[in-house]
From TrEMBL:
Top-level taxon: Bacteria
GO cellular component, one term: cytoplasm
Name this polypeptide is given: Deoxynucleoside kinase
Tagged with keyword Signal: no
Domain Deoxynucleoside kinase: start-end pairs: 2-202
Coiled-coil segments: none
CDD domains with a match to the protein in the record: dNK (cd01673)
UniProt similarity note: Belongs to the DCK/DGK family.
Catalytic residues (UniProt): 76 (proton acceptor)
Residue numbers binding ATP: 138-142
Cited InterPro entries: DCK/DGK, Deoxyribonucleoside_kinase, DNK_dom, P-loop_NTPase
Length: 215
């Protein structure tokens, strides 16, 4: 979910495994601030939500192709959950049915391309789970101006309320490790960080031992 600490956790994992981290780059994304700040009329006429999802999709696809070269590449956002964001925006009327159909066709083609790669899917998905109150507090804490408008609260809630269901009932590409971000602070509490890394190590060992990992 937005704001729960993916970038920080990805960096910790990258340092621990001595691996490259592929971050979701929002600094050079000219569409993202427009998506958050444009009026409803501008969103409708400029189709920013659809354009943003296409832009994110191509960025994820590029990162995945690069990430397959290393054993322990870390991505702080997955191509799988992109579909979830697109679906929520369609449900909210921000993306049209036709646009969503086009998006799904493109995503399907990309996933078919990934099937040709030696490593077709993640070994492990780490899901940072938290209450809506924690999500909003973290978004406010990191202070991105374009994320702060109170009018975005309903959008954040729409994303948040279905995330658990998507992870638990729709995502099936890999094993999942759930981290409770309401009670865990892997950035500022050393004991939490050590416990988290121990859990990741244990999960990866189980995956490798049972040959669940995709290689």
């Amino acid at each position: 979910m937005i704001g729960l600490g993916k970038t920080s956790v990805a960096k910790i994992l990258g340092d621990y495994f001595d691996s490259e981290v592929f971050y979701e780059d929002v600094n050079d994304n000219e569409i993202l601030p427009l998506f958050y700040t444009a009026s409803d009329k501008e969103l409708e006429s400029k189709r920013y939500p659809f354009l943003l999802q296409l832009d994110f999709l191509q960025r994820r696809f590029k990162d995945i192709k690069r990430a397959t070269t290393d054993r322990y590449s870390i991505l702080d956002r997955s191509i799988y959950e992109d579909w979830y964001f697109a679906k929520v925006n369609m449900d909210l009327g921000k993306i049209s049915d036709i646009e969503f159909t086009i998006y799904e066709k493109l995503l399907k083609n990309m996933m078919e391309e990934l099937d040709e790669l030696p490593k077709k899917a993640p070994d492990l998905m780490i899901y940072l789970q938290g209450s809506f109150e924690t999500v909003m507090a973290r978004i406010e804490e990191r202070g991105r101006d374009f994320e702060q408008d109170e009018s975005l609260t309903d959008y954040y809630y729409a994303l948040w309320q279905g995330y658990d269901d998507w992870v638990m009932n729709c995502y099936d590409a890999s094993e999942v490790l759930v981290v409770d971000m309401d009670t865990t602070d892997v950035v500022n509490r050393l004991e939490d960080r050590e416990l988290f890394l121990t859990q990741v190590d244990k999960k990866m060992t189980e995956i490798n031992d049972t040959d669940i990992g995709k290689f």
